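dude i think i finally got it to work??
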Amino acid sequence: MDLYIYYRVPNGHAEELRVRVGEMQRWLSGEYGIVAALKRRPEVRDGQQTWMEVYQAVPEDFVVFLERAVAQAGLALLIDGPRHTECFVDVSACA
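look at this
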């Protein structure tokens, strides 16, 4: 399962959030052996950026660990509104 988590970031918090998310993702990658990425939309609207965290091939219970890591990193203080999580699985091809 892959996780895609998107949220809005005020321009003034972008650099601090980038550092915190980077540290969190490096820790999660080391602890759980997952591939993580951080992306953002190229445009800025109303002084905010839209960011997306990507976690590939995570174990089923990873969401619980991620929520704890997000709380420990204090990310909620730097974003505007909720974090939206989408889960996707690979589509198997028929033989």
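Residues 14-32 form the longest helix (19 residues).
im so relieved honestly
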